[in-house]
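Quick note —
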Amino acid sequence: MYKVEVVGLGAGDMDQLPLGIYKKLISASNPIFMRTMDHPVVHGLQQEGVRLESFDTIYESEDQFTSVYERIVDIILHKANEQNVIYAVPGHPMLAEKTVQLLLEQQKVPVNIIGGKSYLDDLYTALKIDPIDGLQFLDATSFDRSQINYQNHLIFCQVYDQFTASEVKLTLLEDLPADYPITIVEAAGSKTQEVITLPLEELDRIVEISNLTSVYIPPVPDHLLHHSFQQLRHVIRLLRGPDGCPWDRKQTHESLREYAIEEVYELIDAIDHQDDEGIVEELGDVLLQVMLHSQIGEDGGYFNIDDVVRSITDKMIHRHPHVFRDTNVQSVEEVISNWEQLKKQEKGDKRTSILDGVAKHLPSLARSYQLQKKAAKVGFNWDDENDIWEKLNEEVQEFNEMVEAANKLEMEKEFGDVLFVLANLSRYYKINPEVALNRTNEKFISRFSFIEQQLAIQNSSVQDATLEEMDELWNQAKEKGE
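Predicted structure written out below.
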């Protein structure tokens, strides 16, 4: 059976080629297949009479690197049906060589890896860094921003051209300032090695970029990573630590309850005012509550933020089988139905009533809305809106009867029934009663503030004005759209 031998050509010229590999190359009876002829040893090998065949034309005919690599492997495997094949790649075969990985994944033809010198040693030397401090090595043609760890030494290889350099730059600019210093290393370890340090924004503007170009980003200081989740976690841990803030250290889940409620309402207020900056700030305050509770859990040895994130990630994946699995849905209603069924499966036998799960600390109107929403899912609901209006009239009549009887306790109960029916009516019309009432509150504040402002212009005040005067100003505010 024929085989494929993969040879690494190193990063430099003929002088850096290992003796064993040199002998194998110059004694080969068949042509050696080169992934690319763009390498410093090519001229020397040709002078020695070595026959070389490259795949450079495939790069020119394909738009995607993935297609290039697949075609190269197909050709090599086809040739290996007829003869032993020597396939030469730049550097070391096991470093940033997708074609080699594809060859190793197939089972039809044996593949032997015959070393070669990695250019990483020369790269560390050129940059004067020790990888033991933490190193991340990424393929510039295939990476995601979420992979990047800026606290390590960061090196991008395969920065082939200006376009690839531009993609790297644009991604880094999402996290780093334009003037952050980076280093370009060209042809590391060779006689033509060049090392240039320049601002990040200049990365794709340098003239010399080739398949021997690497980009180095030194570890980023903490003050430039305040937007990262890990930095937030670090800050919260310090605040709760022995040398942290006395206030933060003394907090418990119970003591923070009021702040959680307060921050959510402040977020809702920012949303209602369509205040983007306010939304950003208030979302941060809500996130702070999540982080503090998680750190309290970690300090007590019960749970940490990883458990919180894992819980919601698992839940979202489980409850969206139409996205993460092969479930088909045709409407939003089907999505909601599936969600409820999956939610029920998750809770198991923990909930004994269909009404379980509605938070006791919700505002009463919102809680009423949620309770009736749950009951409606099992058919406990009016089908006709007219029936709800009749029920409202009935409850108003019962309330009036208690008013006439001057029964304070029963008045309170009957008025609660009126509000309960109103909450159900809002659900029928798909209106959130909390949102609706909050809009009216804001409208009242705006119109009453207008009255105060207009009276102040007249050197008067709400304490001095008559009801008729205030009512007239109220109607003016209404006409102005206040």
